[in-house]
Structures are given as C-alpha cells and as structure tokens.
C-alpha cells in the first residue's frame, strides 16, 4: 500500500503543496532590489515595443537577461494589469511596492516553481521510492531556493526546473530533446552557459558519434534545433539590428571580478593573498601602491584592484573555467554515460562558480540542485552533499541581512540539515538491513574533519553576527562578510576537489 | 499505517514491507522526530510573525500587542505592588494589567529584555503606541522564545508519556498536530498573545497526570492558573480526576492534603507580593474578574451570545443574576464529566474530561472571548488520535469562529495558508487515519444518516460565509449580520461536538466497567 502511494507522484505533490504554504507565509518578508528589477522588466515588456526592450533606460534596472526571459516577463505582464495597472506602468510604477505588486510577483514565482516540480517528477520517475522522495525533499524544500526565490526574489526554481527536465531527457537517452531544452535554458539565463561545453562534448559523442552518415545527419539535426531555438530568441533583435546592444547588456564585464559581497570562490583566496603580500612587502620596506579600486568598498571599477598580484581579466577567468572543466570533458568524451550527466553538469557549475567572472553567491544553487540528484546514488555522495549543501546555504545568509528574517534563515538551514541527516541515515539503514553481511561501512556518518568544519560554521556565525558588532561596532564592517566568504570558500573548494576526484575515478 | 506528516519524507521501500512512509522521520526515535517537526513548526511561527498584529498602527488604543507592551512598560518601571493599582503612572483604563501575577512577572522579564536592546520601547508613559522596527521584532521574539521554551518542551513531555507504546508514525502525526495547531499559531504569533505559556504549563500538568506524578501536576496547573485565569476552564477536570484517584487510595484525606499543600505553596510563592494585606489581594482579584464588561463581548460562539439573538439577556437580567445563571449553567454542563472522573478516574477519561469541562466553560461561562476556544481546542488536539474526524472538524470551526477577529487583524493570508497546511498534514499521503480502535458502540450518533447530512450542510454554508464575509458589505441595518451567522454556525457545531465527547466519555467508562466485569467473570 505504501509502495503504491509512493510510486505515483502523490507524495511529491503533497510536498510541493507544503512548500507552497511556506512560500505563501514568506510573502511579507524582505525583498531585495531584484524584486524591483523584475517589476521593471514587467513594465518594460508590457509598455514598450520589442525593439525598445534592450534600449530602455528609464530605470537603472535595465533588462539584462536573454530574450526568452524577456518573453517570459511579457507573458506575466498580460496578467499584471488585471491585478493592478500600476505594476506595468513604466514611469509611475517605479519603486512601486503596494500589496498588489508584492502578491502578484510572489505568486508568479510560486507558480513558476511548477516547472521545478515537473522537472523533479520526470527526473525521478524511475528511481526507487525512497531515493525519489529524498530527492524531492532536497530540491522542492531546498533552503537555498526558498531564500533566493521566495524571500530575496528571483525565478531560479523555474529555470532550474528546465535544467532538470533537460537532464531527465539526457538520462533517458533522448539526447535531442535534452539538447533542445538546454538551449532553451540558455536563452532564459545565459549564466547556465557554463555547462555548455559538457553538453557539447556529451551530445557530440553520445548522440552524433555513430557512423559518418547517421552522425552527420544527427549533427545537422542537433545544430538545426539549437540554431532554431536561438533564432526564436534572438531573431527579432537581429532583425532590428540590435544584437550588439543585447549582447552588451547581457555581458557587463565592466562590473569587476567580484560582486560587492564576495561569492565564496577561488578569487577570495587570490584577493586575500594579494592583501597579505602587499602588507608584508610594505613591512619589509618595499613601496607598494595602494590600489585605486578597493574590494571592501563594494564598488569595483575598471582599474586594477590588486596591489601585487597580476590583474585578472574576464579572459583569464574564462580560460581557468575551461581548464578546470577539461578533465570532465575528457571523461565525457571517452565514455559518455547518461547516468553521469547530472554529476558532470553539477561539476561544470561548480567550476563556473569557483573561477568565473563576477559570480553571485546565488549561483551556488546551480550546482547544489543537480547535486541533490547525485546525492542519493552512494554513501560518499550523500556525505559530500550534506556538507556542500549546508555550506552553500550558509553562504546565502548575508543576502538576508535584516534581523526580522534571521530566525527564518537559521531555521531553514537547521531543518534542511536535520532532514538530510534523517533521510540519508534512513536510506542507508535500510540498505544495511537488506545486505546484512558487509553492513559496517554503509552507515551515514559525518567524518571528524567535516564535523569540525561544520561546527566552525557556527563559530563563524557567532563571531560575525554577535561578537564583531558587539566588540568592534561599525569598524571593519567588511570583516564579517569576508570571514563568511573565506570560510565557505574552503568548503566549496573542497567540494570541487572531491567532485573532480570522483569524476576521474 | 496511521496518519503521518512532515515536510520531508522518504518512504517505505518496496522491498521492506513493514516500513511505512514516514519511517525515515521516526526511525531515530520520538525525540528526534519531535525535534525535526518542531524546527518546521518554529519556521512556520517565525514566518507568521512577519504579518500584522492586533491593533497595528491604529491609535489611540491599538490592540493586544500594545496591551502586552504596556504591561512590560508598567512592570519594569513600577514596584510590584503598584502594578494592579491605579495611579499617576499607571492608568488602569489604558490596558490595565488584568491577568494574574505570573503574567506580570513574565512581562517584567520580557520588559527587561526590551529595555536592554531598545530602551524607548518600554519607557514609562512616553512609550505608548511604540511600534519601531526593533521594538516590534523584540516583542515577536519574546513570544517565539516563550513558545520554544515552554510549550514545546511541555509538548515533548506529553508525547513521550502519552505515546509510550504506540506505533511511531502515529506519534509523528500527533506531534505535528500539536505543534502545527493553526489556532494557537495565529493567536500567539499573529494576533499577539502569550497563550503558549499558560497552555504549555497546562500540557505539562496533563503530562504529569499521565505519568502519575500528582504533586507536579498541582504545581504546573497552579502556575498555569497564575498565568492566565482562563486556565480555570480545565480546573474541573484536574480536580475531579485527582480527587477520584485520591479517593481510591488507602488514605484519601492524606493524599488530598498533600496535593492541597502543593497547590497552596505554589500559590503563595507566586502571589507573595500581594498577600501582605487583604486589600492588596482583593485589588488584584477584582482586576482579574472584569464582570462589568458584561456576559459576552463581540460575537463569540457560545450559548449566551448566540441565544441573545432571541433572548436579550443583558436587558432582561442584572449582571449579578447573570453571574449566578452562568455559573450554574457552567457547573451543570461540566458536572457529568466530573462525576465520571470521580467515579472511575482513568487517563483516557481524564483527557475527555479536560475537553468537556473546557467546552462547558467556553459555552456557558461569563465573559468568554473568541480566543477562549483555544482551551477546548488544546484538549481536543491531545485527543487527536482518538477522534481524528471530530478533531478535523473542530479545527475547522474553531478557526472559523475566529475568522472575523483575524480578518480585523489583517491575518487573512496566514489564516488561509495555515488552514491549508493543517489540512495537508492531516491528510499526509502514505497514511490513512485509523478509526478509534475502541469502537464506542454500534449506535454512536455519528452514524446517524442525518448527522452526515447536517455536517455537510454546515460545511457548505461555512464556505459560502467565508466568501460572503470577504466580498459583500453587510446591510447597513445589520452591520454584524455575517458575524452573527458565523457565530450561530460555529455554536451549533460546538454543541454537537460537546454532546458527542460527553457521550463518549460516559460510554468510555461503561465500556471499561463492562470489560472489568468480563474479566472478573473469567
């Protein structure tokens, strides 16, 4: 009886409904400027002709996502005026924050999460019930998604849903549909492009590499599909001769290597090394110039922010991401296995996160969500996921800096950790029961080092939230954030090394 | 097999048949699943606390939030003896303290906390109507912490004692029912009150009864009474159950004496500042019993208010005669369940007794408030596994009876969402609710065909009323027409429910008695 119940997606729908009620209760919570950004996009796409979308500068929050996302906003803007015409008013709607717009936008984010549900349902439909439910819990109730989408405000759940759908088709061996969906995702949000090399190598090898005639035919089909998707997205803008403008909006390289709050990635160490070197050289009497741009000030301009180490350009980061990806690409080329696609994609996003240009901390969702699918595959994966999902969720904490949301983010993380711990230990306790023989190794336990690292998170939180403001007040205001990103960067680097090792072995 | 819940789930593996859907949640033991569910429950509470509270931004009198804040202001700035006394610094007409001393002490502790972090929010006289971001937040956090520190441990205590030998997934379901009780969340974390403290102490007292430590029961329940006089709704059940138990001992007088001493000592400790003179004590007591406010207020779904549509009680009788009438009615209504407990005290019967006596108070006593439904509802929550269907309906109507109040507080969204969440968890998949194993009797009135029809009609009308209340302006001649209709509907359900539970409690003891007889015969 239980088996039947879990076999269909009823439990999943139930879980999604529970998640939705939590999201509904989060409606009055803090909203970042991204909320106004999306409202402005509603107004732009609703009140202006397509040819003006990427030119409009009425608000500072100009449209900088690819065209599909603009079409998506256009679609939503059909409904917005029914709720309140002011939402889509380009001028008088600026900074509009009445209940109507809050409810409308929050509810669109919840409704678009149906896409995520669909992705998970499809992706896990063949998994055994226990793993299936576990994946769903990890994805649908992911604290990171709740924090970023339903408090901070974005549409990541919707986009990740498309990505998961694409992965599910690849796992079924339906490469063409998978490739098509990935092209669609790219035209929604170009940051997903980090996984494009993996897709390219995998599809080329797994889909097109079968004899000259079939191979060529498939290659052409695939190419045609991708070109068609991109044509649908960018065609109108090419026709208007605005493609340059669209591209320059989408890739604002002027923004600098790091975001105002440093994402916990490789560049954190680079900056710190630079600061350390500059400091010690100065002590040694070497004249080191103070860089004109500073990372801790928040705003980062074009000039080099480094005192000693060489300047980093977008090209450097691009090459580094590609280099980091290479082992995975070779592996995918040698042995393209549908079962490993999710792992490779997650790895690609990890590389992009660690070495990319102007990375947002929110981008960690791009790998924690696909990793959830991998997590149920083996005990080691479960242990790794336990660590990395806690670290990446914790690194999102500075997004919600107001005290009112403090209990919410802490409880979300605690609940997630507890559920993971219970879920994984139940999963492996079950396995243990099944194969009584070599049961010793298959118990879900967190290693000593991991445990102390996670305990360290608690200390970091206490220091940055309580001790620092208490003892130092406003002095060194950048210290808490720096501490959090440095500490989390260690965890993410570890995860990257671990994933790399896992892919290579 | 039985009900279950929770935000996560893993489920039984097909190859291991005895494992149920919620096994993953419960396989580490009751305390662990309690922790997990309580994290979720706390999350819900902290989300609800972002919504408006009663009287937000409505000078000059504001609402319950301002009342609690004002008490913190009074208690932190004046000596205890002045807390209940009208004076230059304490205008009793402006939210004067009208709860017993434990509430005052709690206000004092919370007030100290507020003063440390936001001194303006409790400064004497100048802080009236204080609604700063940090002040509001600190106030919300005091409720949150009271809930986490008193109600949650008490619920854990209860669950551990009550579910010593029960299937685990049933326990998880029951924990979720207790902790995600929408009425309590909405009133404490939305509307703004500290019911979690007095209800938590009551739950502690109940758990102490179940594990047989009667002195602890007396201490806890006396504390609950000293926090909110409304805890007296449960007093008949505690009194009759403990009396019934003592009477069966070798030395009934001695056992009663022991418990009496426990009660008196606790009272003396808590009320010490007011026991130095009779005047002081009377002053406090007169604050606790605001008879001048009339037999009912607003539109509460009890007997007096509902029948006042036909019989104008307030015009026909004087307040003193209404006082004795309501006292007589309350005693009469709670008498059957008391007698049952004195005659054959049992744990199960005690829980029904709590439900019946608190329902009797809600329906018939003097000066009942909508929020008082929390008392009978709490008792029903503890019995949720025994009467799942009735519990489900009661939740619906208990919430519904507070609907106008919550709408006034602008808590419509949390009202609907928590209702939805409750329904989801009540019907969590992979589980179905087992009917009470003790089939009370073949002619239980719930099996009458008319009952089901009545229930459906009720439900249909109530859904309609929700919509009507939100969308249609009442006729100007009867501005409270819809409130009155809601009240009538809820009252009629509460009466049916009370009849059913009284009947069950009596039936329960006769069932046991006949079982005893059978045993003896064997």
Automatic annotation (TrEMBL), chain A:
Gene Ontology annotations of biological process type: protein N-linked glycosylation
EC number(s) on file: 2.4.1.-
Cellular component, GO annotation: endoplasmic reticulum membrane
Superkingdom of origin organism: Eukaryota
Top-level class of the enzyme under EC nomenclature: transferase
Annotated TM spans: 12-30, 103-123, 130-147, 153-170, 177-200, 220-241, 253-273, 312-333, 340-357, 384-401, 407-430, 477-497
Alphabetized InterPro entries for the sequence: Glyco_trans_ALG6/ALG8
PANTHER family (alphabetical): DOLICHYL GLYCOSYLTRANSFERASE, DOLICHYL PYROPHOSPHATE GLC1MAN9GLCNAC2 ALPHA-1,3-GLUCOSYLTRANSFERASE-RELATED
Family: Belongs to the ALG6/ALG8 glucosyltransferase family.
Record's protein name: Alpha-1,3-glucosyltransferase
Gene: LOC108812631
Automatic annotation (TrEMBL), chain B:
Pathway: Protein modification; protein glycosylation
Keywords noted in UniProt: Endoplasmic reticulum, Glycosyltransferase, Membrane, Transferase, Transmembrane, Transmembrane helix
Topology of this chain in the membrane: Multi-pass membrane protein
One Pfam family named in its UniProt record: Alg6_Alg8
Main location, first listed in the record: endoplasmic reticulum
Localization in the cell: Endoplasmic reticulum membrane
Gene Ontology molecular function: any one: dolichyl pyrophosphate Man9GlcNAc2 alpha-1,3-glucosyltransferase activity
Transmembrane segments annotated in the record for this chain: 137-159, 171-187, 199-224, 254-274, 349-366, 411-429, 450-472, 484-503
EC number(s) given by UniProt: 2.4.1.-
Cleavable signal peptide: none
UniProt KW Transit peptide keyword: no
Coiled coil location: none
Entry GO CC: endoplasmic reticulum membrane
Family stated for the protein in its record: Belongs to the ALG6/ALG8 glucosyltransferase family.
UniProt protein name: Alpha-1,3-glucosyltransferase
């Amino acid at each position: 009886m239980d088996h039947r119940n879990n076999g269909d997606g009823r439990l999943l729908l139930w879980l999604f409904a529970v998640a939705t009620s939590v999201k509904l209760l989060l409606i009055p919570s803090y909203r970042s400027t991204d909320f106004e950004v999306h409202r402005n996009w509603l107004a732009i796409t609703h009140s202006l002709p397509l040819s003006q979308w990427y030119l409009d500068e009425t608000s500072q929050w100009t449209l900088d996502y690819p065209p599909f996302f603009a079409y998506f906003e256009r679609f939503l803007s059909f409904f917005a005026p029914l709720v309140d015409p002011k939402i889509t008013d380009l001028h008088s709607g600026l900074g509009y924050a009445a209940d109507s717009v809050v409810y409308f936008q929050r509810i669109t984010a919840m409704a678009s999460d149906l896409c995520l549900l669909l992705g998970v349902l499809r992706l896990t439909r063949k998994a055994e019930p226990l793993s299936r439910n576990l994946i769903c819990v990890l994805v649908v109730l992911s604290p990171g998604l709740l924090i970023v989408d339903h408090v901070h405000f974005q549409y990541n759940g919707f986009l990740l849903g498309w990505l998961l759908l694409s992965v599910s088709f690849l796992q079924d061996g339906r490469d063409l549909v998978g490739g098509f969906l990935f092209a669609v995702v790219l035209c929604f949000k170009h940051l997903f492009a980090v996984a494009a090399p993996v897709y390219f190598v995998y599809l080329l090898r797994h889909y097109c590499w079968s004899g000259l005639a079939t191979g060529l035919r498939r290659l052409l089909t695939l190419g045609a599909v991708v070109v068609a998707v991109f044509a649908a997205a960018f065609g109108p803008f090419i026709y208007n001769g605005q493609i340059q403008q669209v591209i320059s909006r989408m890739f604002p390289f002027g923004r600098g290597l790091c975001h105002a709050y440093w994402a916990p990635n490789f560049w954190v160490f680079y900056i710190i090394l630079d600061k350390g070197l500059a400091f010690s050289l100065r002590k040694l009497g070497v004249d080191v110039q103070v860089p004109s741009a500073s990372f801790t000030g928040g705003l980062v301009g074009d000039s080099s922010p480094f005192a000693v180490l060489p300047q980093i350009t977008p090209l450097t980061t691009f090459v580094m991401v590609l280099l980091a990806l290479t082992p995975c690409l070779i592996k995918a080329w040698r042995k393209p296995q549908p079962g490993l696609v999710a792992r490779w994609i997650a790895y690609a996003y990890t590389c992009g996160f660690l070495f990319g240009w102007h990375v947002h901390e929110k981008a960690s969702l791009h790998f924690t969500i696909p990793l959830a699918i991998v997590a149920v595959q083996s005990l080691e994966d479960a242990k790794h996921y336990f660590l990395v999902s806690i670290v990446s969720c914790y690194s999102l904490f500075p997004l919600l800096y107001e005290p009112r949301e403090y209990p919410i983010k802490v409880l979300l993380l605690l609940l997630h950790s507890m559920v993971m711990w219970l879920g994984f230990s139940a999963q492996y306790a079950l396995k243990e029961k099944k194969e009584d023989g070599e049961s010793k190794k298959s118990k879900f336990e967190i290693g000593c080092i991991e445990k102390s690292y996670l305990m360290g998170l608690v200390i970091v939180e206490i220091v940055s939230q309580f001790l620092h403001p208490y003892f130092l007040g406003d002095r060194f205001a950048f210290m808490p954030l720096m501490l959090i990103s440095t500490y989390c960067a260690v965890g993410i680097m570890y995860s990257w090394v671990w994933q790399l090792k896992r892919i290579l072995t | 097999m039985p009900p279950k819940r929770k935000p996560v789930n893993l489920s039984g593996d097909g190859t291991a048949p005895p494992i149920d859907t919620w096994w993953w949640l419960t396989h580490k033991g009751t305390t662990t699943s309690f922790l997990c569910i309580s994290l979720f429950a706390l999350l819900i509470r902290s989300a609800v606390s972002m919504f408006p509270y009663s009287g937000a931004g409505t000078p000059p009198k504001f609402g319950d939030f301002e009342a609690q804040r004002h008490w913190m202001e009074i208690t932190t700035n004046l000596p205890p003896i002045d807390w209940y006394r009208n004076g230059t610094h304490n205008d009793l007409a402006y939210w004067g303290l009208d709860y017993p001393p434990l509430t005052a002490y709690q206000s004092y502790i919370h007030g100290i906390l507020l003063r440390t972090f936001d001194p303006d929010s409790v400064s004497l006289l100048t802080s009236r109507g204080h609604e700063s971001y940090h002040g509001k937040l600190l106030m919300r956090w005091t409720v949150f912490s009271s809930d986490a520190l008193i109600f949650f441990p008490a619920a854990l205590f209860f669950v551990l004692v009550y579910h010593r030998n029960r299937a685990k997934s049933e326990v998880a379901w029951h924990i979720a029912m207790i902790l995600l009780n929408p009425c309590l969340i909405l009133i404490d974390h939305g509307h703004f009150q500290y019911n979690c403290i007095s209800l938590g102490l009551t739950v502690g007292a109940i758990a102490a009864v179940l594990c047989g430590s009667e002195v602890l029961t007396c201490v806890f329940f006396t504390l609950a009474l000293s926090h909110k006089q409304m805890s007296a709704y449960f007093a008949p059940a505690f009194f009759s159950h403990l009396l019934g138990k003592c009477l069966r001992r070798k030395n009934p007088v001695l056992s009663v004496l022991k418990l009496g001493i426990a009660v008196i000592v606790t009272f003396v400790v808590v009320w010490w500042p007011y026991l130095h003179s009779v005047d002081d004590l009377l002053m406090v007591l007169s604050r606790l019993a605001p008879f001048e406010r009339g037999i009912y207020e607003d539109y509460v779904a009890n007997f007096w208010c509902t029948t006042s549509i036909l019989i104008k009680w307030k015009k026909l009788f004087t307040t003193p005669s209404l006082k004795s009438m309501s006292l007589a009615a309350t005693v009469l209504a709670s008498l059957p369940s008391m007698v049952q407990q004195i005659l054959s005290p049992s744990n199960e019967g005690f829980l029904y007794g709590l439900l019946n006596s608190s329902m009797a108070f809600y329906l018939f006593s003097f000066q009942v408030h909508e929020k008082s439904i929390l008392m009978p509802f709490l008792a029903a929550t503890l019995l949720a596994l025994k009467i799942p269907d009735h519990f489900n309906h009661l939740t619906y109507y208990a919430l519904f009876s507070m609907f106008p109040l919550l709408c006034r507080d602008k808590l419509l969204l949390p009202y609907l969402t928590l209702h939805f969440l409750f329904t989801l968890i009540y019907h969590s998949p992979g589980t179905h609710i087992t009917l009470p194993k003790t089939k009370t009797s073949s002619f239980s009135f719930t099996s009458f065909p008319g009952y089901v029809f009545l229930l459906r009609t009720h439900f249909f009308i109530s859904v309609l009323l929700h919509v009507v209340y939100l969308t249609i302006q009442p006729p100007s001649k009867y501005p409270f027409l819809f409130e009155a209709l809601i009240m009538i509907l809820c009252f009629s359900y509460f009466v049916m429910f009370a009849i059913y539970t009284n009947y069950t409690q009596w039936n329960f003891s006769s069932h046991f008695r006949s079982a005893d007889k059978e045993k003896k015969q064997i």
